[in-house]
């Protein structure tokens, strides 16, 4: 990925469209200021913290924030007809989404996304830009330095991390323009869950390039899943700048099924990371190939993202 120009020139492979596309970045000037200027680096702590993100999220919940919805949809070409409430949008935005956050956590209409059903195929658990690795080693350089992507670094507990040492890993990056609900990739149950307090830095590739420890320094919520077809999976939601809240909508003590909603992020770009047991599964070949080329793969929710070994 070439981020040497500016953050608005992020290239990714769009699987469904079968071509390289250029990402439209929300807040690209602010990200460049924050991570690539002397003043931004000095003042970064003012913005990369929970209080600022919660305050920003508060304003996205105010009735006046609905005025931002139509310009946002038009600027970023959101296919609003795919979402619940979207059919009313052309007539009156006030009747569709009362606040910007209500728009931000919009749901797909029934039937818009299908989850692959074959047991050996893992469905995409978020509609996002993916990178993936068969196994993590410290000499990896994409998307961030490999030493920051170890199981211990991501999970914060050495005993839990031992389960996933030498296993596969995928990073799913959700931009502000994306669908912001995340789902379970298989049937199973939650066997452990906990939070790790941290910063709220941006997960934009420019920020990751300039500050490579973001994924292990940011606020994280960790769930250890026992799945039917892919063994144990560590499922990590990573908070980011302006993410008002990470909401777990599925009860911890209830079994889950492939495609069930797990939770959602309120306003902001955010990331989901999953880790697997060694030899249990591997990311799909196009994800591996594109990752090796330094390019993310945009995958629709429910499409194949990994295969059981």
Task: Write a structural description.
This protein is an alpha+beta fold and 309 residues long. It has one domain. It has 11 helices and 15 strands. The chain has helices at 28-36, 38-47, 50-60, 69-75, 93-96, 100-104, 151-155, 158-161, 205-210, 214-217, 285-292; strands at 11-14, 19-22, 121-123, 128-133, 169-174, 181-183, 188-196, 220-227, 232-238, 246-248, 261-265, 270-276, 281-283, 296-299, 304-308. The chain has a 9-stranded mixed sheet. A hairpin with a 4-residue loop joins strand 8 (220-227) and strand 9 (232-238). The longest helix has 11 residues, at 50-60.
Share of helical residues: 10-25%
Which ranges are low-confidence, i.e. pLDDT below 50, for 5 or more consecutive residues? 1-8
Order of H and E elements? EEHHHHHHEEHHEEEHHEEEEEEHEE
What is the CA-CA span between the terminal residues?
28 Å
Notable characteristics:
alpha+beta, 309 residues
Give the gist of this structure.
This protein has helices at residues 28-36, 38-47, 50-60, 69-75, 93-96, 100-104, 151-155, 158-161, 205-210, 214-217, 285-292; strands spanning 11-14, 19-22, 121-123, 128-133, 169-174, 181-183, 188-196, 220-227, 232-238, 246-248, 261-265, 270-276, 281-283, 296-299, 304-308.
Write the layout of secondary structure elements.
Elements: E1 11-14, E2 19-22, H1 28-36, H2 38-47, H3 50-60, H4 69-75, H5 93-96, H6 100-104, E3 121-123, E4 128-133, H7 151-155, H8 158-161, E5 169-174, E6 181-183, E7 188-196, H9 205-210, H10 214-217, E8 220-227, E9 232-238, E10 246-248, E11 261-265, E12 270-276, E13 281-283, H11 285-292, E14 296-299, E15 304-308
